[in-house]
Amino acid sequence: MVAALFVIDVQNDFTEGGALGVAGGAAVAGDITNYLWANAEHYCVVIASRDWHDANNDNGGHFATDAEPNFVDTWPVHCVANTDGAEYHPALNTQQISAHVRKGQGVPAYSIFEGVTDDGEALPALLDRLEIDRIDIAGLATDYCVLASALDAVATGRKVTVFTDLIAGVAPESSAAALVTMKQAGIMLVPDDE
Ligand code: VGL
Q: Isochorismatase-like domain spans which residues (predicted)?
């Protein structure tokens, strides 16, 4: 099988100390780097996404500007394009990342499939061009961008695996529910603690 690895939104704002930091986020960054040292050669392509929001608007209601964020569909200002919060976490080694996808310019965009690469290529075109038939997924956050990306990936008909040791979520309940949803959609969880 020809495999791709997705590294979802391992950005400063989604790690401890960031605008929307998830517990365990920084550890995930380092653990993905270690995983890549050992396994990058098994992937035809390693594709990393970044949330890349506009500074001067609420990005389609994604940023809570007039009220407190509900942490479900409104959020604190995060991952504003060209700010430190939008950069990859320093523990993520980007040398072995071969395609960079940005998403969320002016809109909410949880799935990597909503973005395009820095070369302007849409993700489905890239996956077809490289004849990818297996997609592995790691990154942040389990209950939002990992979930949305994994569901879109499996909907393309490819074999999809989420590495449960290489993800971290916003909230425990929604993260547990996300794992159930992914499994029901035919996504493999590795390891699977159930
Ligand atoms: C994400 C909340 C808001 C994520 C993005 O990367 O999972 N979560 N925007």
A: 3-188
pLDDT tens-digit series, residues 5-22: 999 999 999 999 999 999
Q: Which residue, judged by its Cα, is nearest atom 3 of ligand 1?
A: 75
DSSP 80: B
* Test site for ligand 1: of 6, 73, 74, 75, most ligand atoms within 8 A of the Cβ: 75
Q: What residues does each domain of the chain span?
A: 8-190
Gap between the Cα atoms of 76 and 142, Å rounded: 18
How many residues make up the chain in this entry? 194
At residue 58, the pLDDT reads 98
- For ligand 1, what atom is nearest to the CA of residue 75? 3
Q: What is the rounded distance in angstroms from the CA atom of residue 191 to the CA atom of residue 113?
A: 25
Predicted TM-score (pTM) of the model is 0.98
DSSP summary character for residue 3? E
CATH topology of domain 8-190: Rossmann fold (3.40.50)
Burial (CB count within 10 angstroms: exposed 0-12, middle 13-18, buried 19+), residue 66: exposed
In angstroms, what is the span from residue 50 Cα to ligand 1's centroid? 10
